[in-house]
């Protein structure tokens, strides 16, 4: 049973730092660890196994439940929930976890469920991420750093997202999909296959539309490397023949480039969902985008 912890007794066992601010209407279960400078606003609920690092802010009406670790200076907006049980009928209350990295922003009504015993047992969101309104991170998902999920994005269980990925509003990502780093996913897309690093996808069902050229330029990739990457992309997805043969040809032609090697390693890694490919109807559009770039 949760109990209300008052500001006068919050240092009794050393679990709640004396500089933490807890609103009188908030409920903090005995055993929760609250770091220095944390602020827990009106009507928040923090469970007994929660750990809030220094400077965490729970605005109001936030629920943190289960074995949840929230990193430094994370900010959580009203009505968001972290660490509730996974939406998995096989889950029987096992002590699985959720971890939120430092400085991540979790906006209104976003949900991050803890892991399941049939998966990794942990759901993790990296540092400096942004989960916009109504975003959902399902059980056993792994998000690296600087990931942005726009409004109403839905991640099924076991999704893996690498660094600096942007997922547009309303997109749905099928369970077990892998998304490489610096990918952009168009809004309202339905993604049911893995997306190579630096790729851009859109549609229902989502197809590769080319490379995330804007992201590459913003992050300072040299023009020469971008040209090499575009040539490797054309070799992989725009030429005829068996795909595995194209992978070998691309490696022989461009394999010295570390970014191309990263894409090839991603393609060759184990996968449960297969690879997102370029749709024929998008090739002309892609040509126009590359010419403009």
UniProtKB/TrEMBL annotation:
Its main location: cytoplasm. It comes from the Bacteria. Keywords: Acyltransferase, Cytoplasm, Lipid A biosynthesis, Lipid biosynthesis, Lipid metabolism, Repeat, Transferase. The keyword Cytoplasm applies. One of its GO terms (cellular component) is cytoplasm. It is found in: Cytoplasm. One of its GO terms (biological process) is lipid A biosynthetic process. Involved in the biosynthesis of lipid A, a phosphorylated glycolipid that anchors the lipopolysaccharide to the outer membrane of the cell. This is Acyl-[acyl-carrier-protein]--UDP-N-acetylglucosamine O-acyltransferase.
